[in-house]
Each structure stands twice: as structure tokens, then as C-alpha cells.
Amino acid sequence: MSTRGWSGEASEILRVDKGFRLADVDPGDRPGYDGDKKSGQKDLAVGIESLGQLQERLFAESRTGDTTDSVLLVLQAMDSAGKGGIVRHVVGGVDPQGIALTAFKAPTDEERAHDFLWRVEQRLPEPGFIGVFDRSHYEDVLIGKVRTLAPEQEIERRYDAINEFEAQTSASGIRIVKVMLHISPEEQKERLMERLERPDKHWKYNPGDVDERMLWPRYMDAYQTVFDRTSTEVAPWHVVPANSKWYARLAVQELLLKALEAIDPQWPAADYDIEAEKKRLAAS
Amino acid sequence: MSTRGWSGEASEILRVDKGFRLADVDPGDRPGYDGDKKSGQKDLAVGIESLGQLQERLFAESRTGDTTDSVLLVLQAMDSAGKGGIVRHVVGGVDPQGIALTAFKAPTDEERAHDFLWRVEQRLPEPGFIGVFDRSHYEDVLIGKVRTLAPEQEIERRYDAINEFEAQTSASGIRIVKVMLHISPEEQKERLMERLERPDKHWKYNPGDVDERMLWPRYMDAYQTVFDRTSTEVAPWHVVPANSKWYARLAVQELLLKALEAIDPQWPAADYDIEAEKKRLAAS
Fold first, then answer.
1. How many other CB atoms are there within 10 angstroms of residue B83's CB atom?
2. I want to staple A247 with a disulfide (CB 3.0 to 4.6 A). Which of A30, A79, B15, B231 is the partner?
């Protein structure tokens, strides 16, 4: 079934299946979407409405205890790939009362004293919410691996730990939507340069960004291993080409919409006597 | 200085000063704003842009450690007065990355085992954020008083404890904007009746709402005491007539805008050598 400008299911087209090779993905591509930027922006605006309505229904259903469903969007990417733009333009269209956003930074001393999944578990969305992880437990097998922040054996252990954790999470009613925003190194260079050129963007630039950038091939290898090891049936990865910001936003919105449509939340029936309450209210 | 359709400073016009009497406020009034609903909605849309820009600058400034400023909006009201609409339509216009929203429910057992301010302290906004409390520590002297959930002496102690807590909070760089949305009991009856009449609103209705409604005069007394005891120079209360939803949203937006304008956040200067970084990036 195609919706809006999509020629097929974004969740299938972008999904990481067996044999997937990140090196084969063109970050400038816009797979599955036939429209241009203008129609993409129009579709994004329409989708914001739908996403908001679906989330409100999910929230309503959860309040009466009729469901334990929620959605968790996991966002990973190289610097400047557009995670912030997704949060602002896709997630930002939803009522803040239904959003649970966590931006994971380098772990604190307390966090480091626990298993790497400890801080993540605490931030899983409650029923009815759309949770968003801006970075996640995958940092522990990305920068963790590239920078050797943990012994090789420990990194190795983490892939299985992640799969087990995500299987449990999924079984508890949380639909996990994992997204890597994929830009080209050339596109990143332009975006970082823009941050250096505009005084209102200087604060977004960090000299460390270039240090990481110099390790680009090693990061791509680490992502490939993440995809090989942790793209599972219950929690598959999606690689979203992100040189076109508008396409990436539309694609992530589409993935969220499909996750919510699959839950198909309904307005819950009243768990009180409506007519009796009308009388009581009228008399009050 | 008047801005947009305001004939004066909303923060002064709506502020609870010595001698304030809640009974004198007409919930159907629209003090300080000369425009009609249409111009009010237009001004709200303009304000969303400004609020977003100010918050981004505040956030930027906080990232470089140049400031510890943040803003905390405390929302209190009788049921259906429009707290949710404020969160959706005023706060919802700001990038979710800069918002820290907490909806306080009846305290859990763990929370009850601590002082009433314990759970509130943990939810204070970090520098750079706009924190929003949907209900707050004031519940402990509102429903807490009306329903005698604590001994009279303990309720009495809490007003001073709140003032001390808010003085410290304010001194730490958090600008506290306290708002009571004030509707009439007649308006509430209509809004609750609408929830009973629309299947997509049934989940928002709770029979307990009518129980609280029956205690309306006692709640108004409890609010009056709150205003008498806790409207301080560093954290004054504002009573916003809220029978007109559009006016209430515009007024709360104006209060937030003024709080941010008073901070007057600036884009921080780069704490790195811009030209050296440009070269390093270009060579990477």
C-alpha cells in the first residue's frame, strides 16, 4: 500500500535485511519517495497532523489501562546528519505531553559504574508515549568500539546484550524504530563549515567533531557491524539517506506513522456511567 | 512598553500583589489585551516564533557555560481550565529539545516517604531549558488543604517551605513564572459536559472531577491563601482569566516571552579558534 508520495512501504524499503551493505547506500538518494522537495514538505505538514492524532489516541488508550503500547524512536548518526532537525520538525509536531525525549551524552561517573544498558532502561517510554533517543545504547558499540573505550571482549558481549534487551523491551509493548541518518562526508564538511561561518551556529560546532570525522571509515565499519549484529525481526534498523534534510524528515515521519498505525489505537470506552455522570454534573 | 496587542505589561497587569482578591477577578475578562480572538490567534503564531528563537539562544548560551539561566512555568488550575492547551499550543511551539515538562500526579509511595518538595526539586529545569510543571508543589497546599491530606500544622509549614525553596531556586538562575488559569464554575460545567458528550473526549473525564467541583468555594479559598502567602517578589503569582482559551494562551505566552527577554540571551562567542578550525576542517 502506498501512502502520500511513497511508492512503497518506507519501513520495508529502508529496512536493514540480511546482506545489507552500508557502502551501497547513496546518502543523496531518496528511496521510495517520488515527489520533490515541495511536495515532500507538504506531505510532512499533513503527516504532522496524523502523527499527533494517532499519538493522542494511543495516550488516551493507555490512560484507561487498555494498552501498554508505546513507540521508541532510536536515532543514531554522524555529527550534523540532522538528528536535531528530526526532533524539531517531526517529533515537534506532536503534543509535548506525549513525548519522552532523551539526549544521551557521554556517560556520567554514576552511569559508568553500572552496565551500559542501565541508564537506557530508565528512559524507556511509558505506555502511550512516543519515546525518542537522541543517541542511545548504540554509542557503546560505535564510539565505544572506534575509540576502544571498552575491551574488545566487552564490546563483543554488548551486541547480544542489546538484542536481548530489545527483545524484552519489544515484548513489553514498546515498538522500537531504529534509524541511522546517513550523510556523506562531503555533506558533513559543508554543514560543519556553515557552523563555522555563522555566528549563530558557532555554539553547535565542537573541535572534537573534526576528530571524529577523521575516523569516518572506522565509524562506517562500526555501523556495518551494528547492522549485521543487531538488526532483528522485532527491532530492525532503517538506514535513511539524509543529504536531503526534507527527505530524511519525511522518511522518519513515515516510519513513525506506520508504527502507530500498526498499533491502531482506538478511543477507549468510558469506564463510568455516562448518563449518570451527566446528571451528576448537571446538578453540581 | 506595549507589545503586539497588549496595552501594558501582562506580567504587571496579571500579577498578584498585596491586597489581591481572587473573587474580584472575572474569568471572562481579557485584561491588557485589546485585540479580538482573530488578532489574538495571529499574535500567538508570531509569538511562537519569538519564543522558539529566544529559547534556542538561551540553550546555546547554557551549552558554553556562559549562563545558568532557565525558566520554569508553574501551571495550576481547576480541572478543564486549559493547562493541557497551554502545553500544546504555547509550549508546543518550542523545540522539544529545549523543554522539560513534568505532569505531577498524586504522589507515589516513594514520593510520599519524602518531604513534599523532594520530587519537585528533581524536576527543576537544567540551564538553557524552559521547564513546565503541569500541577506542582502547590497541590500540597491546595487539594492537600481542601481534602485534609496532611495535618493543618503541616500545611501551614509548607507555605514558608515553598517560599524558601523558590527563593533558592530563583537565586540559582531559574526564573519562576507562576500561573493560575482561572475559569468560572459555569465554564467548567460546559467543558466537562462536552467531555461527556464526545466519545473522543470520554477518556479525559473522571468522575472525581465532579467531586472536586463540588468543593469549588473551598478550592477558591485555598488558592486565595496560596496567593496571600506565596506571591513573592522573586516568584510572584499571575492569575490569568481563562474562559477565553485564546486569551489565556496568549497571556501565558506573553509572560514567558517577557521572562526570556529579561534574561536577554545572546549567541555565545566561539571558545575555539574559528580560522584554525576552518583550515582543519577543509583539510579533513
1. 24
2. A30
The reply to whether residue B96 touches residue A88, judged by beta carbons under 8 angstroms, is yes
Share of chain B above pLDDT 70, in %: 99
Inform me whether the C-beta atom of residue A87 falls under 8 Å from chain B C-beta atoms. yes
Task: Kindly list the domain boundaries of chain B, sorted by start residue.
Answer: 10-283
Give the dihedral of Cα atoms B45, A47, B100, B176; nearest 10 deg: 10
Q: Where are the alpha helices (DSSP H) in chain B?
A: 10-13, 37-63, 83-89, 109-112, 118-121, 143-146, 152-171, 185-197, 207-213, 216-230, 245-263, 274-283
CATH of B10-283, one of 3.40.47.10, 1.20.1380.10, 3.30.230.10, 3.40.50.300: 3.40.50.300
d(Cα B211, Cα B202) in Å, to the nearest integer?
17
Contact (CB<8Å) A193/B281: yes
Quickly list H helices, A113-215.
Answer: 118-121, 143-146, 152-171, 185-197, 207-213
Of B84, B210, B272, the CB nearest to A280: B210
What are the chain A neighbours of B267 within 8 Å (beta carbons)?
A: 199-200, 202-203
A64 in B contact zone (CB under 8 Å): yes
For A40-79, write each residue's pLDDT tens digit. Answer: 999 999 999 999 999 999 999 998 877 889 999 999 999 9
Which of A223, A225, A250 lies closest to A239 in space, CA to CA? A223
Give the nearest partner residue to A277 out of B103, B207, B267, using CB atoms. Answer: B207
Can you count the helices (H) and strands (E) in chain A? 12, 5
The share of chain A scoring above pLDDT 90, in percent, equals 95
- pLDDT category at B65 given cuts 50, 70, 90 is confident
Contact: B205, A267; criterion CB under 8 Å = no
Q: Which of A226, A254, A235 is nearest to A72 (CA)?
A: A235
Q: Choose among A63, A199, A284: nearest Cβ to B210.
A: A284
Residues from chain B that touch A202, judged by Cβ atoms under 8 A, are: 267-270, 274
The whole-number pLDDT of residue B64 equals: 82
Residue A148 has pLDDT above 90, yes or no: yes
Residue with cell string 510543571:
B133
Nearest by Cα to B95 from B127, B128, B72? B128
- Helix/strand/coil for A24: helix
B58: nearest CA in chain A? A203
Secondary structure (3-state) at B226 = helix
Average pLDDT value for chain A: 96
Q: Per-residue pLDDT averaged across A172-196, rounded?
A: 98
B51 in contact with A, Cβ within 8 Å: no
Predicted interface score ipTM higher than 0.90: yes
Strands of A174-182's sheet in order across: A99-103, A130-134, A70-77, A174-182, A237-241
